[in-house]
Amino acid sequence: MATLKHVQKVWSNFLNQGGFDAHALSGLKLVSAHKGKVLSELIVAPQHLNRLGGCHGGLLSTIVDVGGSLAIAAEDMHATGVSTDLNISFVSGAKLGETLSINSRCDKVGGTLAYTTVEISVGDKVVALGRHTKYVRLAHKSNKEMKLDGQ
């Protein structure tokens, strides 16, 4: 299965759970995916703003979380593990109506941990840089047993 199609199925599975990801990132658009790399976009909407009218840091942190997970999915993983560490540097702001470009990369999937890097930008301006580490030992086992819709 093509990497983009696989990542789209994983993302659809996230959305179908109806939790926080679906609430905060329902407008996330997957643009492209290649082994271990995903490019996605999100237009900053009113619900994404903080009280000062800028893109909320919680949203950017959620993007790092989900972006890292989708980059792991792009390594042909159905299950993507659980977060053990997430850090983010807020470099500049983003405003209502701007399109966030989200470049997510899986740096390594090991037997126990996976390491990812996510860069969020608007045009040439870096908005945030994040790193996300996930525990994947049980995900490897689930991946052997799990099938997504249509697989």
UniProtKB/TrEMBL annotation:
Q: Which InterPro entries match?
A: ACOT13 (IPR039298), HotDog_dom_sf (IPR029069), Thioestr_dom (IPR006683)
Q: Name one GO molecular function term.
A: fatty acyl-CoA hydrolase activity
- Classification via Pfam families: 4HBT
- Enumerate the spans annotated as Thioesterase domain: 53-125
Instruction: List UniProt keywords, sorted A-Z.
Output: Hydrolase
Protein family per UniProt? Belongs to the thioesterase PaaI family.
Full protein name: Thioesterase domain-containing protein
Q: Which species?
A: Podila minutissima
